[in-house]
């Protein structure tokens, strides 16, 4: 527990601190730019890009080692992965536009064949005399253990750069994500913005490779945005909320993974984000599962109560469910007799019902769409103008 | 060549070909229904299922693992539907949320669990271990007639043959509903074909093929074979039956060529060590698709005179 607190307050040594900050910055950039991808319904393209980094990563290692350098320099590896991620993106784009294949097939094909070629190159590296120390496997599921100072700084700077680009491109990306036709009509180059959005996502995948690993990187684009959507409908809030959730996940997940051995960084970061997502899905007001469920229950109760009141007004026997609702509201005694308040409420309900019938006659149907739910009193459902219109017509 | 080939290469080669064909068959219908990414999702969620099965039974035996993997696939289908409904996100993103989360959970359990000597790690899950499925009891081609030697074939071979046969049988039996429901759901419904049932059946069959192949050859081959051969075949023809047959051919070709290139290619180039067969098979499958995309006769979307089903 104490060590967790130390990790969260950045007291586990200089390099661990850099890794944690870098992961937070990566999460921030991934969450914010991922929000645009999720809104544009293109999030899985970045999965293809993330998997397509592997051959570039391996080739960069081989070239750097052949040139006599240390094959493990993160900047060089990141450059190689960026090039092959870009090739993967172009391949998906080309297959989708030039052939009859749909995008999902193009994504699957590019993802599998680029990754497969990367695996071939990885086995080549393993057979080299110095290959066993390459440690490229850590890029599969991410690891910040033993990360160098320079690596941490590279990730921090890369994440900050991606965040700044997201900020600069936020307006055209919002337009394109929401209404591509309108965006095109108002002079935005939709295709170019789309490619920029994808390239930005690819860049972020590359920045995060060391932390979350290429298999899981796509999660940091999708999970924060999907979680943020439970809390708000406004685009800017989704974007920055997703950034916040992503940043927190990167920070907390990396700190957690430093606490004990065999807690791999990538899964810890992704599971932190997933925990936030599932909590949002259950707890968020308005849209969360609990809120939806209780609103549905409340509405059902209102419907039954209304049915009971109308039955009382017409002198019929209410159904068992409706009677229970009447009793709960104090409108009926335990024996099933209507109380004084119940008779009054029943009169009001009957009156309201006849007003509703009148409203349906004189108001245009579209004015009542979504408001005529069978439980709301007319007064609450109409605007003051409409109300006086109906009231006047039935007087 | 003879004796060594039979001992070291025959079984992996056959298993690779059978796994490729078993995945390519349901892949044809997933492709037409724009569900190609389902294979990707299934092959990720299989990992936690296998780890849980291992933790419960304490051994790496086939059936508990298959059941665990199928259970995980079913659970992920439920989760995807929940996320899609409550989260109001597109199916792709819902899938992405669920499969990455479950895969992360699987990796974490794998790292935390004390697996001892059990042969199970992340790399194995991704790449499989095709090369290790050797037939050590054989002594040349004549062993194919020797019941004792045959009994010691790697158990993955009969299993994969069974699954591939089952996929073929299902495709034959349900050909008509599969075809109609994949091209025109409305028409299928008017004929009284249970469209939702067909859709569910396709996903279930793909999951079964994935799970069986995953254990033997790893997830790269599974993902590649669900998508690449059917996509390649789709660029070659407009007829569904031709497409399915061609996809089987492309799958078998990729598995054979990939296996041979991985094993002998480096030696031809003057190297000493073989490279990953799984990786090479996926690479060949991708290259084949690339060639078809460049010059396949039906690669374009709008061809005059052809009715375009999709």
Set out the fold topology.
The complex is a heterodimer of chains A (395) and B (310).
Chain A: H1 2-8, H2 14-39, H3 43-66, H4 74-98, H5 103-127, H6 138-141, H7 149-168, H8 170-178, H9 180-185, H10 190-212, H11 219-228, H12 235-259, H13 265-283, H14 289-314, H15 320-328, H16 340-362, H17 365-368, H18 378-381, H19 384-394
Helix pairs in contact in A: 1-12, 2-7, 2-10, 2-11, 2-12, 3-4, 3-5, 3-10, 4-5, 4-10, 7-10, 11-12, 11-13, 12-13, 14-15, 14-16, 16-19
Chain B: H1 2-32, H2 37-57, H3 62-87, H4 91-112, H5 122-127, H6 147-150, H7 156-173, H8 175-183, H9 185-190, H10 195-217, H11 219-234, H12 240-268, H13 277-295
Helix pairs in contact in B: 1-7, 1-10, 1-11, 1-12, 2-3, 2-4, 2-10, 2-11, 3-4, 3-10, 7-10, 10-11, 11-12, 11-13, 12-13
Would you kindly provide a written description of the structure presented here, covering whatever features stand out?
The complex is a heterodimer of chains A (395) and B (310). Chain A is mainly alpha-helical. Chain A folds into two domains: 2-284, ABC transporter involved in vitamin B12 uptake, BtuC; 290-394, no CATH class. Chain A has 19 helices and no strands. Chain A has helices spanning 2-8, 14-39, 43-66, 74-98, 103-127, 138-141, 149-168, 170-178, 180-185, 190-212, 219-228, 235-259, 265-283, 289-314, 320-328, 340-362, 365-368, 378-381, 384-394. The longest helix of chain A is centred in the N-terminal third of the chain and has 26 residues, at 14-39. The model of chain A has no long low-confidence stretch (mean pLDDT 87). With 310 residues, chain B is mainly alpha-helical. Chain B has helices spanning 2-32, 37-57, 62-87, 91-112, 122-127, 147-150, 156-173, 175-183, 185-190, 195-217, 219-234, 240-268, 277-295. In chain B, helix 1 (2-32) runs parallel beside helix 7 and helix 1 (2-32) packs antiparallel against helix 12 (240-268). The termini of chain B are far apart. At the A-B interface, helix 3, helix 4, helix 5, helix 11 and helix 13 of A face helix 2, helix 3, helix 4, helix 5 and helix 11 of B.
